[in-house]
């Protein structure tokens, strides 16, 4: 099973492909405007939307390449700062390695504090 960070990286590449294809398709299918006429609003909206989708696609390509370069260099990726980069087995192993729970550490703290308090009182007497 893959890590959540790797899944987000794959989703980023999916967004790249879809946005670039959709933006390019919108721009390639624009109706042509004559030189002397003014283009209608729908044509301009398609152009703006197509350019916006291409921009999102190119930004996703840049972020995806940065993640690939970091992953091949055995460094942490920028995605792993937001999403966990451990597999399910590593998470279970880390959870089982905890030797004592919070209740025992709190009770140990109270016992040490009580012992310190009693020795202080004994020294005062």
How is the secondary structure organized here?
Elements: H1 4-28, H2 41-72, H3 88-96, H4 102-124
Helix pairs in contact: 1-2
Please estimate the helix content: over 70%
Major sheet size, sense and barrel closure:
none
| DSSP strand count | 0
Distance between the termini: 65 Å
Q: What class would the helix/strand composition place it in?
A: mainly alpha
Shape: elongated
Q: Return the domain count.
A: 2
So how many helices?
4
What this model shows, in words?
This protein is mostly helical. The chain folds into two domains: 85 residues; 40 residues. The protein has four helices and no strands. The longest helix has 32 residues. The chain starts with a helix and ends with a helix.
Summarize the entry for a quick read.
Helix content is 71%, strand content 0%.
Keywords:
single chain; 2 domains
């Amino acid at each position: 099973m893959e890590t959540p960070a790797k899944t987000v990286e794959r989703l980023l590449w999916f967004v790249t492909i879809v946005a670039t294809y959709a933006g390019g398709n919108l721009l390639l299918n624009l109706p042509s405007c004559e030189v002397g006429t003014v283009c209608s609003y729908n044509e301009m909206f398609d152009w703006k939307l197509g350019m916006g989708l291409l921009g999102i696609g190119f930004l996703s390509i840049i972020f995806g390449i940065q993640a690939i370069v970091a992953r091949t260099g055995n460094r942490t990726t920028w995605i792993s700062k937001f999403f966990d980069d451990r597999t399910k087995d590593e998470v279970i192993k880390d959870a089982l390695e905890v030797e004592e729970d919070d209740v025992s550490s709190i009770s140990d703290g109270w016992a040490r504090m009580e012992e310190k308090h009693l020795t202080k009182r004994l020294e005062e007497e």
